[in-house]
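Pipeline run #58 for the internal structure catalog. This entry was flagged by the ingest filter as a single-chain record with no existing model, so it goes straight to prediction. Upstream metadata was stripped on purpose; only the residue string is passed forward. Reviewer on rotation: M.T. Logging verbosity set to normal.
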Amino acid sequence: LNDKLPIPLKILVNSMKNVVNSFVPSGKIVQLVDQKLPGLLDNLSGPFEEEMKGIADVTEIPLGEIISFNIFYEFFTICTSIITEDKEGKYMWNVNNNTWVVTEELKPLTVNLDFQRNNKTVFKATSFAGYVGMLTGFKPGLFSLTLNERFSMNGGYIGILEWILGKKDAMWIGFITRSVLENSTSYEEAKNILTKTKLLAPAYFILGGNQSGEGCVITRERKDSLDVYELDPKNGRWYVVQTNYDRWKSPFFLDDRRTPTKMCLNRTTQENLSFSTLYDVLSTKPLTVFTTLIDVTKGHYETYLRDCPDPCIGW
């Protein structure tokens, strides 16, 4: 964190507190977070706990509030993701991360990260300052990964409750994505981990590789994988689209991002795929914090802070 980042992070944390206090005006929930959450969620796997303590020290924000920011996926997030294959078999990995609390307050916290070991890049990612997990990233030449929230009655709040009660055999969402980006060495290894690992919250993992046909959406319950939907370019499936609804179900009519995204992709055609055309496709809905464009094989990685452009217009 540089000297400027603690202020926007404090603004965002205060917004979170205001939302909570609007439902429970007594302030007791925030007090519980400040005083009890670090103890309730102890034994987080390293290096996540140590990093959150360091962020709390630098920003002078209570550790409980830093932890609550870092487990926000288990409560809130909305995303749209696309994975495509062009005629030459190259992959464009495109992520449209949307607001979960206040879009404008997340924008100044958006950072591009280059994780290195022995002065060599291990993976690159786009995240928010103060958040130690990962939402969007890639290992150059190997695979790309992002996650979308999946609504379920068996949601993240149940996983958090189980953790508090002592059942700690599941992974926090942001932590597993970072672990896969850091440690997995192939598309198949990443897919296996994301398909089989127990999670604290349901999710969609969208994974792209470096070979023809390597690209999939993994639909997860907390303990099981429900569906792995893969690219099949030989049979005409040159893209897969994932928002926040199971692909076999109709999206909520007020939140149908799937239909306009598919319309724009079909209008674009496989022959015309590029960063610019896919950026425009990902402009079909507003309320976006950032859009990330990734070409795994070429190692290209671009992130743009977003406003609210007209449908299919943006580049």
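catalog note: Residues 6-23 form the longest helix (18 residues).
catalog note: The two ends are 31 Å apart (CA to CA).
status: ready for reviewer M.T.
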